[in-house]
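Page 37, continued from 36.
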């Protein structure tokens, strides 16, 4: 304030000084101009006459020069002319002086106006801009207020309609509930009658062994099911093993095929190598022979013997082919006989299987009937026991149902109480949640910190789309209350460091806290958008910023690291007297060093008395990392407190909100728990259904007992018949078995015959094959001998070269033979593996078939057990009818009770809805009061009642914020309008002066023009008079012509601008006037 006052006072005295100096300057300028005008008057008049004369000359007049004969007349004429010209010249001079004077005054007024013009234009522009902004916000406020009014009125209308509709629905529901209660009471009465009839029917059954039979039948079914499952599992395992073995067969087959191919390749290579060796040996033999004629003769003899042997072999082959054909014909016939025999065996086996299955079924049925006969005696007693047990369970369940119904009502009441408690906390919870979501803004509002609130609103932080991407109250935002609590420890660390260095502890300035939050938000936005992370520099205060993980302590860098740099700088000697310098001195002397240790100096700057701190977290880039910002100030605002006071105030505010959250959470947990217990109790109401099931089981047991007694006599008659059937089945099985033995014996004889024929054919085929092979070998020998003879006739070859080739080829033959032997061994191994795998698959197929049969038997047994069990579940008709009537009555009660309960719940729901709507309708009317307050506030502001207080009304914060902005712009407009009117007044005064000066100047110009016109007219009149006199002279005698000519010539000279004569005349006239004076 003092700084502003001193500045304004200095400006005032300077303005006075400048004004006084300027006026004195204007007076001096005017005096000098008047002196100059007086000194130049004579010369200007002369120039004026000359100009006029030149103008006349331009009209075409001629001058004459004659001797002057009448000086008296001349003098008289000149005096008269000079007198009038002098008057006209003086008028022009005076008009010109006036023009000069008025122009000077006009320029002076223009200069003064030009000095004010920029300020006037600027203030006018500012005022018009403020006026435009005011109009815009007024339009927005008007629209928002109208919308609020319309919305509130429409909501009240809609809520009233909803209220009327729900009230009508409630009346209808209450009427329907009364009718449902009557229906329910009648259904309960019918149920009691049906129960009595049913109990009487149950008492008529006394069989006590029924339950034991049922339990045994159930156990038999369970055992049969387990047996089926076990058989199915074994079958699945067998199939799986079969598939694995089949895959192994395919693998072995592929391996065998591959090894056979390799064997054939090895054999081909071995044969080629041996043939090549034999050829080389033959070449060697031929190369060694000299006289081949004897050798050729011997070979030819051998060929003849071989041809005889070949003929014998061919005869033997032809004979053997006939024998083989005979044997194969016999084999074909015998094979047909074998097929018939096999078919007979299969038929006999099939018949045997059928008979055995019939015997097994008969035996199984017989075994079952024996077991049933054994169990019949105890069945009645067990069934009676089951009836008594079911009756006891029913009574117990009924009592439990009644007790649970009472408990259910208690739990419903508990839910309603918990719900009311939760609803009573909802408003406080919502208010606390709204405050929490506002973050620091809500805290500042709670302590009425107006200037921090204004700062946040001025920076548009209350709008999500603000420049700094600040999101009030969000968990990661610097304005979040938990983040604000976390900053207190850092402020304490800073004060501890200052105290450690003998400095005062900083107080917390809420304005600096807002600045720190804005800076931290802006820094986080820089990080999130991959922009340069740096100081925003928005406010004139000290600032430290840092960025790191959530466990990072910024003072490690700001203080610890920079303190070491500070000590290193002192030790380096590059910075003399550094330890005794202030922060500003270091900044101005060594700015580079300041960049490195500026945070340290900010912390320990003794001029600072106030601080603010903020931290927030990144979300997109390195999520969860902290951004820190600490601000420092010399002087504080109106909202400062010690760190302890700040901690107490903020903690109290936060804990207050969290207490509300906790109370709401506890109430919600209580409601949830009560509701869960209610739902659990409702589910457990199925206990009554359990009683009904037990009762149904009891009735079924009685019915089964009745039918079992009727069936027992039939059973015994069937038992004897079944014994006969079993004996006949056994006889049939023996007959079938004998038939199998006979058929198998016949089949075996035929198979032996086929075996003998196959052996004979095989032997013949072997002999035939051997003979063919011998014949082939003989044929080959003949061919070889013939080739040998041909080769003997060739020239002898190079023995050494052939021997070398033979040696090399023998090595190749050995390698190929070894490779062939390895391939042969591998084929043999693969063949064994393949045969073994095939055998395993065949064996497994037998196992799979056995498992299938076993599963089939188990399934048949299960089916039989289930049929037996179902036969036990038939009840007597009387009990069934009574039970059916009882069930119908129960269903009617349940249905009526459900309708009654549903309608009661509906009535309750409608009552609750009606209460809720009434509350909402009341609230809307209360909201109308708020809207009316807002409308009144807006109208007052619109009428320029700027002392109107703009309150923050819950639910209309945005409109109130807009009205606050409207008031602010109106105040700003009012201030700017006052400034503008002040400047405008001054401008209008100067502008009026300028306009008057301009009018005076224009009037002076007109007077000057008129004076010049008058002089011109006078000259024109004089010229006309001279011309007239000249014409009159021409009409007189010739004696007077010279005189008149002289006069005319003198006149013309005067008119045409004889400057010297005129000046002389003016001087003479002045001398004369001076002499007279």
């Amino acid at each position: 304030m003092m700084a502003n006052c001193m500045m304004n006072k200095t400006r005032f005295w300077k303005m006075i000084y400048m004004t006084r100096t300027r006026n004195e300057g204007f007076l001096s300028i005017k005096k000098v101009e008047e002196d100059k005008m007086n000194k130049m008057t004579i010369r200007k008049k002369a120039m004026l006459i000359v100009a006029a004369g030149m103008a006349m000359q331009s009209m075409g007049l001629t001058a004459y020069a004659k001797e002057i004969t009448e000086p008296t007349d001349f003098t008289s004429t000149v005096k008269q002319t000079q007198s009038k010209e002098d008057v006209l010249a003086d008028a022009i001079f005076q008009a010109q002086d006036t023009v000069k004077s008025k122009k000077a005054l006009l320029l002076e007024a223009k200069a003064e106006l030009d000095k004010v013009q920029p300020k006037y234009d600027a203030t006018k522009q500012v005022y018009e801009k403020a006026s435009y902004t005011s109009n815009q916000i007024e339009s927005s406020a008007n629209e928002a207020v109208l919308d609020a009014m319309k919305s509130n009125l429409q909501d009240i209308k809609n809520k009233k309609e909803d209220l009327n509709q729900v009230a009508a629905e409630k009346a209808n529901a209450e009427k329907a509930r009364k009718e449902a209660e009557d229906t329910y009471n009648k259904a309960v009465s019918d149920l009691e009658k049906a129960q009595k009839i049913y109990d009487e029917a149950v008492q008529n059954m006394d069989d006590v062994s029924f339950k034991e039979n049922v339990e045994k039948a159930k156990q038999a079914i369970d055992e049969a099911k387990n047996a089926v499952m076990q058989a199915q599992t074994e079958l699945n395992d067998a199939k799986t093993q079969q598939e694995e073995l089949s895959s192994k067969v395919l693998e072995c087959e592929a391996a065998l095929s591959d090894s056979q191919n390799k064997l054939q390749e090895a054999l081909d290579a071995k044969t080629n190598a041996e043939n090549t060796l034999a050829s080389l040996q033959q070449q060697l033999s031929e190369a060694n022979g000299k006289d081949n004629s004897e050798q050729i003769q011997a070979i030819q003899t051998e060929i003849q013997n071989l041809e005889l042997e070949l003929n014998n072999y061919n005869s033997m082959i032809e004979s053997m082919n006939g024998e083989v054909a005979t044997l194969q014909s016999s084999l074909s016939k015998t094979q047909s006989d074998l097929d018939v025999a096999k078919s007979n065996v299969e038929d006999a086996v099939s018949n045997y299987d059928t008979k055995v299955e019939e015997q097994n079924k008969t035996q199984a049925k017989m075994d079952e009937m024996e077991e049933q006969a054994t169990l019949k005696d105890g069945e009645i007693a067990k069934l009676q026991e089951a009836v008594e047990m079911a009756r006891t369970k029913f009574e117990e369940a009924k009592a439990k149902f009644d007790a649970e119904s009472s408990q259910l009502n208690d739990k419903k009441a508990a839910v309603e109480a918990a719900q009311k408690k939760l609803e009573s906390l909802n408003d406080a919870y919502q208010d606390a949640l709204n405050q929490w979501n506002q973050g620091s803004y809500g805290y500042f509002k709670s302590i009425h910190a107006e200037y921090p609130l204004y700062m946040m609103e001025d920076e548009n932080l209350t709008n999500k789309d603000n420049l700094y991407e600040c999101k009030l109250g969000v968990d990661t935002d610097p304005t979040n209350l938990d983040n604000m609590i976390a900053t207190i420890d850092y402020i304490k660390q800073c004060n501890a460091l200052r105290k450690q260095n003998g400095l005062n502890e900083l107080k917390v300035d809420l304005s600096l806290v807002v600045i720190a939050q804005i800076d931290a938000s802006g820094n986080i936005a820089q990080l999130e958008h991959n922009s340069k992370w740096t100081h925003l520099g928005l406010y004139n205060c000290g600032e430290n910023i840092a960025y790191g993980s959530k466990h990072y302590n910024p003072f490690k860098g700001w203080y610890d690291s920079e303190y070491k740099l500070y000590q290193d700088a002192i030790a380096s000697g590059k910075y003399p007297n550094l330890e005794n310098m202030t922060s500003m001195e270091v900044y101005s002397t060594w700015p580079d060093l300041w960049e490195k240790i500026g945070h340290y100096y900010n912390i320990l700057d003794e001029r600072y008395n106030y601080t603010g701190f903020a931290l927030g977290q990144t979300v997109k880039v390195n999520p969860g990392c902290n951004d820190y910002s600490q601000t420092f100030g010399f002087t504080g605002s109106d909202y400062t407190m010690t760190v302890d006071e700040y901690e107490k105030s903020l903690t109290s505010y936060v804990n207050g909100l969290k207490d509300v959250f906790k109370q709401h959470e506890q109430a919600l947990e209580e409601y949830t728990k009560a509701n869960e217990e209610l739902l659990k109790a409702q589910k457990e109401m199925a206990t009554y259904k359990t009683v009904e099931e037990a009762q149904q089981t009891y009735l079924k047991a009685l019915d089964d007992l009745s039918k079992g007694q009727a069936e027992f006599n039939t059973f015994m008659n069937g038992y004897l018949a079944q014994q006969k059937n079993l004996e006949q089945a056994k006889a049939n099985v023996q007959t079938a078995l004998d038939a199998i033995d006979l058929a198998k014996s016949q089949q075996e004889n035929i198979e032996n015959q086929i075996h003998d024929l196959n052996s004979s054919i095989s032997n013949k085929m072997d002999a035939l094959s051997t003979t063919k092979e011998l014949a082939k070998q003989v044929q080959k020998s003949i061919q070889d001998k013939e080739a040998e003879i041909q080769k003997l006739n060739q020239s002898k070859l190079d023995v050494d070269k052939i021997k070398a080739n033979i040696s090399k080829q023998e090595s190749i033959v050995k390698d190929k033979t070894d490779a062939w032997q390895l391939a042969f061994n591998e084929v043999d191994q693969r063949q064994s593996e393949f045969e073994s795998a095939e055998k395993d698959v065949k064996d497994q197929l037998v196992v799979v078939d056995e498992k299938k049969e076993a599963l089939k038997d188990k399934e048949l047994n299960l089916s039989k057990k289930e049929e037996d069990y179902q036969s036990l579940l038939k009840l007597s008709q009387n009990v069934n009818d009574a039970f059916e009537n009882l069930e119908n009555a129960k269903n009617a009660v349940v249905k009526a009770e459900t309708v009654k309960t549903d309608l009661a719940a509906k009535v309750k729901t409608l009552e609750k809805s009606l209460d809720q709507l009434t509350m909402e309708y009341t609230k809307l009317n209360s909201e109308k009061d708020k809207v009316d307050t807002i409308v009144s506030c807006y109208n007052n502001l619109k009428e320029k009642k700027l002392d109107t207080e703009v309150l923050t009304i819950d639910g209309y914060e945005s409109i109130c914020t807009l009205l606050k902005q409207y008031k602010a712009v109106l105040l700003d407009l009012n201030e700017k309008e006052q400034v503008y009117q002040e400047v405008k007044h001054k401008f209008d005064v100067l502008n009026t002066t300028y306009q008057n000066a301009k009018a005076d100047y224009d009037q002076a110009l007109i007077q000057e023009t008129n004076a010049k016109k008058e002089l011109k007219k006078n000259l024109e009149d004089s010229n006309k008079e001279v011309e007239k006199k000249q014409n009159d002279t021409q009409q007189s005698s010739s004696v007077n012509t010279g005189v008149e000519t002289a006069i005319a010539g003198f006149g013309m000279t005067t008119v045409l601008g004889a400057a010297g004569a005129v000046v002389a005349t003016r001087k003479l006239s002045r001398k004369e006037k001076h002499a007279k004076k």
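The radius of gyration is 68 Å. Flag for discussion at group meeting. DSSP finds 19 helices and five strands in the chain.
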